[in-house]
Amino acid sequence: MTDRSEQGAPRLADFRRVEMFRKVETWVFDLDNTLYPPDSDLWPRIDARITAYMIALLGLDGQSARALQKHYYRVYGTTLAGLIREYDVAPDDFLHFVHDIDRSSLDPNPELAQAIEALPGRKLILTNGSHGHALATAKQLGIDHLFEGMFAIEHGDYLPKPALQTYQRFFERHSVDPSRAAMFEDIVHNLAAPHASGMLTVLVRPKQGAEDHREDWEKHDDTPPHVDFVTEDLVDFLNRLI
User: Which ranges constitute the DSSP H helices of the chain?
Assistant: First the structure.
């Protein structure tokens, strides 16, 4: 049974949801636009740094660099994966540059910290960003101490989500049984492999009317079968599981 909408959810739906999550021993969270909302200015800051990196690397004008950046992102899963494939760039240099941003605009979220801490079992982050970015961002949110580990892009040899191989490496590295795990993610297609692996999947959408800095192709109004649950309020969703 699934609960694909938060709006007007009856108590019976909440009961079914809690029952389905009772088996979960490992809670896995995407980072960007999931643990913090997509109306935050963090992703636009990173996005602009990626464009600047490509301008410097390839000698392109801003418009051309940005068009190529977005092409690589859609085709390869990350701009970095495209640059490695096409130009053999040094990934660590790229990641250090693009994630060197000011995070002070991101307020600590004690309600989120409380909700995550209350979950029974292990908590992990699985991100296409760097480990340094994940750690710094989680620290800014005030939740870094709650996670047993963080699986970043470098831990998967720079092969990003949604590749099944990346999830398999994650399962192996952190000894995760996907049949007893849940994945929280803001991009629909990144939940296909987790669902196929046996994880419960939760799509975290922006609140209605909120600004959304994600790419248009990352936004979906429909809910495909590989998405078990949908929420516009991660804290509220987690609190209903306790």
Answer: 11-21, 42-58, 62-76, 79-87, 91-98, 110-117, 131-141, 164-173, 192-197, 234-239
CATH number of the domain to which 210 belongs: 3.40.50.1000
pTM of the model: 0.90
Q: Report the alpha-carbon distance of residue 162 to residue 183 in Å, rounded.
A: 13
**In which element (H, E) is residue 142 found?**
none
CATH number at residue 86: 1.10.150.450
Question: What is d(CA 39, CA 33) in angstroms, rounded to the nearest whole number?
Answer: 8
Enter the tokens of residue 114.
């409380």
| Domain contains 49 | yes
Domain that includes residue 173, residue range: 11-39+108-239
The owner of tokens 């960007």 is: 32
| Number of domains into which the chain is organized | 2
50 and 78 share a domain? yes
Buried (b) or exposed (e) across 56-77, using 16+ Cβ within 10 A?
eeeebeeeebbebbbebbeebb
Q: What is the pLDDT of residues 151-188, one digit of tens each?
A: 999 999 999 999 999 999 999 999 999 999 999 999 99
Structure token pair of residue 224 = 């495909």
- What is the H or E stretch that residue 174 is in? none
Residue 224: other Cβ atoms inside 10 A: 14
